[in-house]
């Protein structure tokens, strides 16, 4: 407890020193402020520094966990005002390196006898240093299984060793991170109770999302699985090189990957010297990122230029897979609805899809949002998707989310961050690059995919299951209503025979509504599909018959269940 209390005192001292003492009351830390003040030898903010600058400096002094939180939150423009996002984006991790002896001790402890494969050729000087771990270069002797897998420089080339990068987790970092995360969670909850502004940005939820992300990064086994997931998604794609994982020298604390060499994509001079077309590279790199999102649903969530290399054979080498995002089917469905609403200039549908994407109820209270979105849609009316400035639209959308106190789910926020970073990467390579030009084919494919025979069949099956579930649950729901009425929860009175007739009519009406919904959805979907994809639907009867049988079967089961339960 003394260490925890000392950490709280350190937070109080840091905030006070940077002119942020006004926040101590909100955080419930006023009692820890000493009457005689704090020592003056520590860094203080420059005279006249703005509030965002003072916040950044305080975060830097609080250490690695807070710096990582600031870096991640700086990308959440849906909750953070632009002046703070810009300032926090300047945060840099300046963790001191751990010694070569500590690195070797961790490897030996984790790998046992297998450590010898790495230690003999491991460089003592780190390749990179971070708050969680440290990377060193080395060489590893290939097992026959590795050599047969086609590793560059392997046995097939007459060489038995391959260059690797070994990431080693800092000793004691898990306990340190967990303590800071627990304190951050407690302070966020206090802030939400005391401040409407903290509650409006859902500070506790942001800290919880950050905690999940950071704890996942602590486990190098998870990063190794991410690498293999990407490798499977790009298997046979000659444009991309995902490093090989050496599993026999990989644990939760040690990660061994094939080393990626090449020219960093932001090294303009080296690219020109190598004769690489920067514009073509920008398009290729962004197409790879867009494929991750719209085709694979599993994407690299930190695509800054330092993680991409152009190799000697022209392939795009990718590294650092600790932070990834996934797009669920439901999120993809809402994104399709939003895109379709933009194309149709339907602000109402766009509002409903956006509100649902944020996990809020679209039943009311968003008339102002619909008006603002209508202005946004009208501004780009009649323009092809390739001419719409996607980053400008996302920036304006983020401002609206802040205004109406809506917060995107973590995965969608990561997606928007990735799109903004991809656009920045493309423009860094080619000032004339426009992400929307590359985005068009993917979004069109996603919209058409939602109208495919397979998608329709899937929706019919889901609708049938929902009807079946509703049919099973409806009698119980009605019984609960009766219980509430009998307990006097609502001041409405029925005679028993009237209530029986009402329940019978309600169940029959429910049957008709569900049947009507299924029929209407089927007719509407088939009409859209035939007009959108006539060639694909020449052989529609088989697909539609299969889906229809499933939907009608579920509907029949639903009707039978409700009929049986009514009796």
Describe the model:
The protein has 567 residues and is an alpha+beta fold. The protein has a four-stranded antiparallel sheet. Strands 4-9-8-6 form a four-stranded mixed sheet, with no helix packed on it. A two-stranded antiparallel ribbon has the order 7-10. It is globular, with a radius of gyration of 29 Å.
Q: In short, what is this structure?
A:
The chain is of the alpha+beta class. 59% of the residues lie in helices and 7% in strands.
List key phrases describing it.
10 strands, disordered C terminus
What's the topology here?
Elements: H1 2-17, H2 51-62, H3 64-73, H4 82-88, H5 100-111, H6 116-119, E1 128-129, E2 133-141, H7 144-148, E3 161-169, H8 173-194, H9 196-200, H10 203-218, H11 220-233, E4 240-241, E5 254-258, E6 263-264, H12 268-273, H13 278-296, E7 298-300, E8 308-310, E9 316-318, E10 324-326, H14 329-344, H15 347-357, H16 367-379, H17 390-403, H18 410-429, H19 435-449, H20 453-486, H21 496-532, H22 540-566
Parallel strand pairs: 4-9
Antiparallel strand pairs: 1-2, 2-3, 3-5, 6-8, 7-10, 8-9
Helix pairs in contact: 1-2, 2-3, 2-4, 3-10, 8-10, 13-18, 13-19, 14-15, 15-16, 16-17, 20-21, 20-22, 21-22
């Amino acid at each position: 407890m003394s260490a925890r209390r000392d950490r709280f005192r350190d937070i109080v001292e840091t905030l006070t020193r940077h002119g942020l003492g006004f926040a101590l009351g909100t955080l419930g830390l006023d009692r820890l402020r000493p009457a005689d003040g704090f020592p003056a030898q520590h860094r203080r903010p420059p005279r006249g520094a703005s509030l965002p600058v003072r916040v950044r400096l305080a975060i830097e002094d609080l250490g690695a966990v807070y710096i990582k939180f600031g870096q991640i939150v700086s990308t959440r423009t849906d909750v953070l005002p632009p002046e703070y996002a810009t300032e926090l984006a300047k945060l840099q991790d300046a963790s001191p390196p751990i010694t070569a002896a500590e690195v070797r001790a961790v490897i030996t402890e984790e790998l046992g006898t297998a450590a010898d494969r790495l230690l003999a050729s491991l460089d003592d000087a780190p390749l990179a240093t971070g708050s969680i771990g440290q990377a060193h270069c080395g060489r590893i002797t290939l097992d026959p299984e590795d050599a047969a897998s086609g590793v560059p420089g392997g046995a097939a080339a007459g060489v038995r060793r391959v260059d690797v990068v070994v990431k080693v987790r800092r000793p004691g970092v898990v306990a340190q991170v967990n303590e800071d995360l627990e304190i951050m969670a407690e302070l966020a909850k206090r802030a939400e109770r005391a401040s409407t502004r903290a509650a409006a940005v859902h500070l506790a939820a942001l800290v919880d999302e950050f905690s999940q992300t950071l704890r996942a990064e602590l486990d190098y086994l998870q990063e190794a699985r991410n690498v293999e997931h990407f490798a499977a998604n790009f298997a046979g794609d000659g444009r991309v090189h995902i490093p090989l994982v050496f599993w026999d020298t990989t644990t939760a604390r040690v990660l061994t990957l094939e080393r990626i060499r090449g020219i960093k994509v932001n090294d303009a001079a080296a690219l020109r010297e190598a004769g690489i077309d920067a514009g073509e590279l920008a398009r290729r790199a962004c197409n790879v990122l867009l494929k991750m999102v719209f085709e694979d649903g599993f994407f690299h969530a930190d695509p800054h230029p330092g993680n991409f290399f152009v190799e000697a054979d022209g392939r795009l080498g990718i590294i650092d897979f600790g932070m990834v995002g996934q797009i669920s089917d439901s999120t993809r469905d809402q994104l399709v609805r939003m895109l379709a609403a933009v194309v149709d200039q339907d602000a109402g549908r766009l509002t409903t899809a956006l509100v649902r994407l944020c996990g809020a109820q679209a039943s009311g209270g968003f008339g102002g949002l619909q008006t603002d979105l209508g202005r946004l849609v009208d501004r780009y009316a009649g323009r092809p998707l390739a001419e719409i400035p996607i980053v400008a639209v996302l920036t304006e959308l983020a401002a609206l989310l802040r205004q109406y106190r809506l917060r995107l789910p973590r995965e969608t926020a990561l997606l928007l961050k990735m799109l903004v970073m991809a656009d920045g990467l493309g423009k860094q390579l080619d000032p004339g690059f426009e992400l929307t030009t590359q985005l068009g084919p993917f979004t069109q494919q996603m919209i058409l995919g939602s109208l495919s025979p397979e998608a329709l069949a899937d929706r019919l099956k889901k609708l049938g299951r929902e009807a079946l579930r509703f049919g099973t649950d409806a009698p119980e729901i009605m019984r609960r209503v009766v219980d509430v009425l009998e307990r006097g929860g609502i001041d409405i009175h029925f005679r028993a025979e009237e209530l029986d007739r009402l329940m019978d009519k309600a169940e029959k009406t429910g049957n008709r509504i569900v049947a009507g919904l299924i029929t209407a959805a089927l007719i509407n979907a088939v009409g859209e599909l035939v007009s959108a994809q006539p060639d694909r639907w020449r052989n529609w009867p088989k697909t539609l018959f299969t889906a229809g049988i499933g939907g009608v079967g579920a509907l029949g089961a639903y009707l039978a269940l409700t009929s049986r339960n009514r009796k």
